[in-house]
Amino acid sequence: MNNQSNKKQNRLNGNFSLKTGFMFSLKANILLIMLIFTFLVNKAEWQYDGGTSVIMFVTFAELFIILLSALVFIKPNVNNEGKGNEREQSKEWIGALIAFVSLSLFSLIFLGANIPYPSTLIFLTLMTNFMVSLYSVVFHPVALGIYKANVFQEKTTMLDYIFKYIAIFLSGINYYMQRTLLKLPLLINKLIAVVFVLFLLWQGFGVIAIFDK
Predict the structure, then answer these.
(1) R_g of the chain, CA atoms, integer Å
(2) Angle at the Cα of 169 (from 198 to 28), degrees rounded to 5?
(3) What SS3 state is found at 66?
(4) Keywords, A to Z (predicted)?
(5) How far is the C-alpha of 126 from the C-alpha of 159, rounded, in Å?
(6) Residue 40: CB partners within 8 Å, gap ≥ 6?
């Protein structure tokens, strides 16, 4: 009888994790604060009601963070990706720096849309994650597999680390979203996945609205 009660309790503990939900919410809000700071760097370039657009951007982002935190709380994920080799830290830092500089230069194409740097990086991140999330609606396992191959597999060359951070930057938001949805029933999974696609597109237009003159 006691064994059955313990097994039942373990299943409940496996399905609900307040700590996991809280940590997810904390990390997501730290990221959101970083985005707000990036917008503030370009405050001189805001249009006359850019502050309203920033508030809308933050509000929709916070609502989605609350939704995802609830999903993580109900269906916590097991972190089984593994850790990188600490002996390769210097090579990894250099790879991350090269990836950041490369993506920064590439993001300058959005200057033509009146989006100043570094806010161009936010727009680039949203649009690439939008495209990957659209692909993930149909090819969910493939999208997760590609990300894992680029990010979590053992790295040996500088190019490996560069591609790792490019993948994190261009599709990391989608990966953690899709991983969160993985344990949900199929119909709910696809419904939220479609909403997530629309959310990223909306937020992308929100960035344009901040600076459009």
Answers:
(1) 19
(2) 65
(3) helix
(4) Membrane, Transmembrane, Transmembrane helix
(5) 24
(6) none
